[in-house]
Every structure is written in structure tokens, then in C-alpha cells.
Write a structure and sequence with these properties.
single chain; mainly alpha; about 5% strand; elongated
């Protein structure tokens, strides 16, 4: 496994294996009168049928993937958000790792049927 693959795998595990699971658990809790972001979303989702609620929650994987893709693409030098047109130098354990991070991440998401 290359360093780039190792980095992408670790970040994907964090985003999907931890964060998404936490979001899913929180959004499937019983409704309540709390006013925080999770409670408002959970209460709105509770109005949907279970299958529709699941579809919306699973759509968060697309949002996570697209967000991470923008960041990886920016670091790789293939995506240029407004006012960012310079070159990044991303290193891990003494070696340069950018160039294929976005492709590796999108490939991982496709393998995991996010899209």
C-alpha cells in the first residue's frame, strides 16, 4: 500500500467508519424538544417513512465524499477553489503524497457504492 493509499484509507475510515456512523446513530434517536442541530435534523427526519429517512441519511455519504474530494483535489493541484491557485506540497513520512489523493478517495467511494 502506498503512502497516498494509506492516508486515503485512514481518512475514509474516519469519515465513514466513525463520523457517518455517529451521524446515523444520532439522527435515528427518538425525537425530543432539544434545539441543537442534531435534534432539529432528527425531528425533521422523523416525519419521513423509515426507508425515506434512511435514503436521506445515506445521502450524507455523498456530501462527505464530495467535501473530502474538494479538499483532496485542492491538495493534489487539480481543483482550484476561488482565490486558491498556488501549489501545495503535502508530505507524509518524508515523502510527497499529493497527486492522486482525490482519485484514490473517489475510487474508494465508488467501490463502497456511495455514488
Amino acid at each position: 500500500m502506498t503512502c497516498s493509499e494509506k492516508i486515503v484509507q485512514a481518512i475514509a475510515n474516519e469519515l465513514f467508519g466513525k463520523n457517518f456512523i455517529q451521524y446515523s446513530i444520532s439522527l435515528n434517536k427518538p425525537i425530543n424538544a432539544d434545539k441543537d442541530s442534531y435534534a432539529r435534523a432528527r425531528n425533521a427526519l422523523a416525519k419521513l417513512e423509515a426507508s425515506d429517512r434512511s435514503d436521506v441519511i445515506n445521502f450524507l455519504k455523498v456530501v462527505i465524499t464530495d467535501s473530502a474530494s474538494v479538499i483532496f483535489g485542492t491538495l493534489d493541484g487539480v481543483h482550484f477553489p476561488d482565490d486558491i491557485d498556488g501549489r501545495f506540497l503535502v508530505m507524509y513520512e518524508g515523502g510527497e503524497i499529493q497527486g492522486d489523493l482525490q482519485d484514490l478517495f473517489i475510487e474508494k467511494a465508488q467501490d463502497d457504492h456511495v455514488y
